[in-house]
Amino acid sequence: MTYCVGMMLDQGIAFMSDTRTNAGLDNISTFTKMTTWEMPGDRVLTVMTAGNLATTQSVISLLDERTKAPDERAPTLLEVPSMFQAARLVAETLREVIARQGDEGQRADSAFNATIILGGQIAGGPPRLFLIYPEGNFIEAGQDTAFFQIGEMKYGRPILVRAYDRQMKFDEAMKLLLVSFDSTLKANLTVGAPFDFHLYETDSLRKGREGRIEEDDPFFLKIRHGWSAALKTALDNLDDFEL
Amino acid sequence: MTYCVGMMLDQGIAFMSDTRTNAGLDNISTFTKMTTWEMPGDRVLTVMTAGNLATTQSVISLLDERTKAPDERAPTLLEVPSMFQAARLVAETLREVIARQGDEGQRADSAFNATIILGGQIAGGPPRLFLIYPEGNFIEAGQDTAFFQIGEMKYGRPILVRAYDRQMKFDEAMKLLLVSFDSTLKANLTVGAPFDFHLYETDSLRKGREGRIEEDDPFFLKIRHGWSAALKTALDNLDDFEL
Questions:
Q1: Is residue A219 less than 8 Å (CB to CB) from chain B?
Q2: Complex ipTM over 0.90
Q3: Which Gene3D superfamilies does the UniProt record give (chains A, B) (predicted)?
Q4: CATH homologous superfamily for A3-235?
Q5: What is the arithmetic mean of pLDDT over A92-106?
Q6: Residue A12, Cβ density class (10 Å: 0-12 exposed, 13-18 middle, ≥19 buried)
């Protein structure tokens, strides 16, 4: 499995993804699930993927190759005029890859499905965030639901639902994301560190701060221990049930 | 879906279950998922069920009917000599019901599967807690994993994993359970109040405190609001990420 979160903030968009892939429980590897395309001053697009690794890698490679092959007739991610068109392009590529694997008669225990988060900004429009389904349709983050999760999302959801706030700054958002990732990590073997992140700043039209949080990253360790202790304190501070 | 938790404590066993059942999203009802059999001074057995409602009701009815039909040849829940034998009996009844529905050619979108938590004590043995699978096998709570969840368990798991402690008293355990149920409720429509609970006290060999927590129960409302606030405070108290 996988765990990725994309989060709209007034300050910009925060992206975080884990890096564990597994085929069975004894075949685990580290792959990045986050890819960013940038044309400074014009656009920044970040894609995070969850699902069948062959499918997601194929989608990313196709999207990437097309940006480098100027003779392709179809517009590429570096040429589409809007974020909406970018979402359509990614969605079509995803559907195409899934359909092709189906056509060629491949069968496996797990489906070839994948789900994608796409976020970014293209000059002339605001930052936008999309969740793209394997069927090739997609939804956009709005005022009410301003973050998307894909993959193993349940363990890390309660804290996001409660603490997310559009006005958060990136430094708080990173903390919230790491708490959410830690909850997932603690409960599920198929989500693993390191975690990749990208913090895109609204209207900057260039890559924001990017990086990778290792499992032994001092800040992450502080979060892990601090959060366990803080949760226990929070629980202690609630009144006990009166029997 | 469903959410039930059974938790071994030094003080006894705490059971809590939600009461929502649904067939689709627009056909929801309230059914209790917790049943307790008692022979004061000899045994107390509590069963919680998750899964296909027809299956679980059938299992409970069969178990119950047999305790009332003294001519049945098979031993009943009120006669088996140990908790282990009680678990075998419940497991066999479950497998039997699932198999019979399969045999009779019934087919539905959802499987007839169900999962059961059984806990209690029979005179002469210690309190024991079992998780029974649809296949008819089962596992017992030990020192390391001393609680079981069934149904929609992921949302409510992180707080249990972090805060559970065998030495908790029932008043703290109720608080922890309600926080875990609240996290699930907040994230998933198919888990709903009221919640049933039973707190069996070690070596009492009679029913402990039982009851039902309604959605507008003042203590539960206090937990809900208090916990949201406490989580936000806990998060605020962690250092922000240094960008």
A1: yes
A2: no
A3: Glutamine Phosphoribosylpyrophosphate, subunit 1, domain 1 (3.60.20.10)
A4: Aminohydrolase, N-terminal nucleophile (Ntn) domain (3.60.20.10)
A5: 78
A6: buried
